[in-house]
Amino acid sequence: MDHGAALLTIFIAFVAAIIGGEIAMRLKMPSVVGQIIAGVVVGKSVLNWVSIDTTPILFELGELGAAFLLFSVGLETPFDKIKQVGREALVVAVLGVIVPFIVGFAWAHFAGFPNNQAAFVAAAFIATSAGITAKILQELGVIDQKYSQVILGAAVIDDVLAMLVLSVVSAVSTGETVNFASIAIVIVQSLAFIFLMSTLGRKIAKSRGSRILDKPLSPLSPWSLSIALCIGVAVLANKLGLAAIIGAFLVGMVLAETDYKEWIHEKVIDLNEFIVPFFFISAGLNVDIEAFRSLDALGQLLLVSTLAVVGKFVGAFLGASQNRRVVGIGMVPRGEVGIIIAGLGFQFKVIGKDIYSLLVGMSLLTSIVAAPILKALVKKDGSDEQT
Amino acid sequence: MDHGAALLTIFIAFVAAIIGGEIAMRLKMPSVVGQIIAGVVVGKSVLNWVSIDTTPILFELGELGAAFLLFSVGLETPFDKIKQVGREALVVAVLGVIVPFIVGFAWAHFAGFPNNQAAFVAAAFIATSAGITAKILQELGVIDQKYSQVILGAAVIDDVLAMLVLSVVSAVSTGETVNFASIAIVIVQSLAFIFLMSTLGRKIAKSRGSRILDKPLSPLSPWSLSIALCIGVAVLANKLGLAAIIGAFLVGMVLAETDYKEWIHEKVIDLNEFIVPFFFISAGLNVDIEAFRSLDALGQLLLVSTLAVVGKFVGAFLGASQNRRVVGIGMVPRGEVGIIIAGLGFQFKVIGKDIYSLLVGMSLLTSIVAAPILKALVKKDGSDEQT
C-alpha cells in the first residue's frame, strides 16, 4: 500500500537494461554494452530517473548479479582446463598488471600529478573486470575455449595482484608506513583460500558433493544450498580482501564437479536473467557525464582510456601464447574493479572529484570499447583449430 | 574489495530462512512458519544479527519476493476457475472484512482506546495476506482446488475493501474530513484496473500473447519480458493504492493464458527459491519481542490474536459455501498487510509504539497459527470429492 519507490526504481532500471541490451544486440554488439549505456542514460548524466546515491538497492542487486554471473561462469569452467592453462594465465596476469601500471603511472607523472595521485591512477589501470569479459564470452558460447580459460584464470590472479598493489598504494598515498607483514598475511590468506577451494573444496565436491547436495535435509533443495554457498563464499572472499565475485566463481567451479552441474546451471541462468542486468546498469549509473562537458576533460578521458586499453592489451598479448589478440582484448575491460579503486582513492581524499570521474569514465569506456572488438575477434580468431 | 556488508546481511538472512524452513518442514509444518520465526530470531528480538532499519535491502528483496510469489500463484490460477467462484469469493471477502472489523473495534473500545485508535486497530484486523496463504497452498500443491480459488479471489477483493476502509479510517483518525469523492475515484480506478487486467489483458494474452512474447526483439527472452511485466504492473497496482502483489498476481493470471505458461512457471520457481524467503524473513524482522516481556502485554497479544483469528475465521466461514473450514482458516493470516496498516497508524501518530507492536505481533501470530492448521485441514477436508 506504500513502499512502492524501490519497486519503481527496480522496474525502470530493469526495463532500461533490457531495452539497452536489445538495441546493442540488434547492432551486433554484446548486450553488456547496451546495458551499461542504458545505465548512463537513466542515471544522473542524462535522464536522472534513478540515482545510485538514493537507491542503494540497485547497487546491491548489482553486486548479487555479478556474484551469480561469475558463479554461472564457474559452473561452465572445468578445473582441469584451468589447470592446463595455469602457467600461461599467470604470465598474462603479471604482464597485464605491470605494463598498464607503468603506462598509467607515466601518464599521471607527465601530466603533473604528484606521486601519490599517480600511484592511484596506475592502480586503477591494472585490474581486469572478470564480470564483463565473462558475460561476453558466455553470450558468445565460448566459455569452454582455451583462450576463455586463460582469460578467466588470469582475471582471478589479476585480482590477487590488484589487491597487493592496492594495499601498498593505499598505505603509501595516505602517508602510512607500508606494513609488509600485514599485507603478506592478507596475500597468504587469499592464496590459501583459492588453493583450498580448488583442491579440498573440489575433492569434497567430487567424492561427496552430490550426496551432500541431495541427501540431507529432506525438502531443502540443492538449489537453495547452492545459492547459500555462492553468496557465503563470495562474502568470505570479500572478507579476505578479494573481490566477492572471485569467491562466487570458485564455488561455481567446485559445484561443477558434482552431478548437479547441469541442473544448477539451468536454474542459475533463470535467476541471472533477472539479476545480472543490475550489475551492468549500476556500472553505468556511476558515470557523471557532466565531468566531461569541456573539450579538455573529454580529450583527457579519451587519452587515458586509450592508454588503459593499449597498456592492458600489450601486457596480456605479450603474456599469451595462443589466440593472443583475443586474450589481450579480453583482459581490457576494467569495469567495476577500476570504479572501486577510484572510489577508494576518492574516499581517502588522495584524488579529487575530477580524477575520480576520469577513472570511472575510463573503466567504463574500456569495457564498452573492448566488448565489440572481443566479439569480432572471437568470431575471427577464436575458432577451434587454434585452441 | 569492499561493500561486503549488504552481501553478508543477505547471506545471513537467506541461510536463516532455509534453516528455519527446514526445521518447520521436519516438524510437518509449512516452511513459512519456520522462515518467519527465523526472521524473528536473527532480528533485533533475539540475535540482532540483521536489522531491517539499517538494511532496507532485505525489505526490498522481500517486496520483490512477495510480488514474484503471487506472480507464480497467478500462473497456476486459471481465470475461468476464479470466475466460477467469483460470487462466493465476494461474499467471503465482505463477511471476512465486516466481522473482524467489528470484533477489533469492540475490543479496542472496551479496552478503553479512543475511537480514532480503535478504528486503526479494527483496520489492521481486516486485510488477509494473500502471500502467506498462497505459499502454503502452493507448497501443498492444491492451488488448483476450488477452495484455493475462493481464498485467492477473496484475498484480492479483500485488498480493495481494506484500501477503502483504510482511506476512511486514516482520514477520520487524523481529523481530516473524509473526502468521499477522492476515495471514490481511487476505488473506481482500482476496480477498473482489475477489470481491465482480467478482460482486456487476458484477451490480448489469449489472442496475441504468445506472439508478443516470442516474436519481437530477437534475443530478448520472453522471460525478461515477463519479469518486466510482473514488476511493472505491481508498481502500477501500488500507484492505484492496491497492494503491489495484487498486480503481480493479475499479471500471472494473464500470462497463464499464453503458450508460455509452463515455461515461465518453471523459471519463476527457480527465481523464487532465491527471492521469496526474504519476504518471510523480513516479516519476522519487524517483530520486537521486547514489547511483550511483561505478562500483561503478552496476555494482550494473545487475546488480540485470538480475536483476530476468530473474527476472520467466522466471517470467512459464514461466507463460504464449501470447504468452509479451509476457506475460513485460509483467510486468517494477516502477515504483511496488517504490518503495513499498523505502520501507517504509527506514522500518522494515531497509535503509539505499544499498539503498533501489538498489531505487528498479531499479524505474525495469526500467520504462524493459521499455517499448520490450514495444512492439517487441507489434508483432511481438502480432498477432491468435496471440490
Brief synopsis:
With 387 residues, chain A is mainly α. Chain A has 17 helices and no strands.
Q: How does the SSE layout of this entry go?
A:
2 copies of one chain form a homodimer.
Chain A: H1 4-26, H2 31-42, H3 56-75, H4 79-84, H5 86-110, H6 115-126, H7 130-140, H8 146-173, H9 180-214, H10 222-239, H11 244-255, H12 261-275, H13 277-285, H14 295-319, H15 324-330, H16 335-347, H17 353-381
Give your account of this protein's structure:
- Two copies of one chain form a homodimer.
- Chain A has 387 residues and is an all-alpha fold.
- Chain A has a single domain, classed as Na+/H+ antiporter like fold (Up-down Bundle), CATH 1.20.1530.
- In chain A, 78% of the residues lie in helices and 0% in strands.
- Chains A and B meet through helix 1, helix 3, helix 10, helix 12 and helix 16 of A and helix 1, helix 3, helix 10, helix 12 and helix 15 of B.
Key terms:
homodimer; 387 residues; mainly alpha; 17 helices
From the spread of the alpha carbons, the general shape of chain A counts as globular
CATH fold topology of chain A: Na+/H+ antiporter like fold
Poorly predicted sequence stretches spanning 5 or more consecutive residues of chain A: none
**Overall strand count of chain A:** 0
- Give average pLDDT of chain A, whole number: 84
Q: Alpha-carbon distance between the termini of chain A?
A: 57 Å
Q: What would you call the structural class of chain A?
A: mainly alpha
Pair of chains with the largest interface and how many residues each contributes: A-B, 56 and 56 residues
Oligomer: homodimer
Count of the domains of chain A: 1
Order of helices and strands of chain A: HHHHHHHHHHHHHHHHH
Q: What count of helical segments of chain A does DSSP give?
A: 17
**What would you say the CATH architecture of chain A is?**
Up-down Bundle
* Biggest β-sheet description of chain A: none
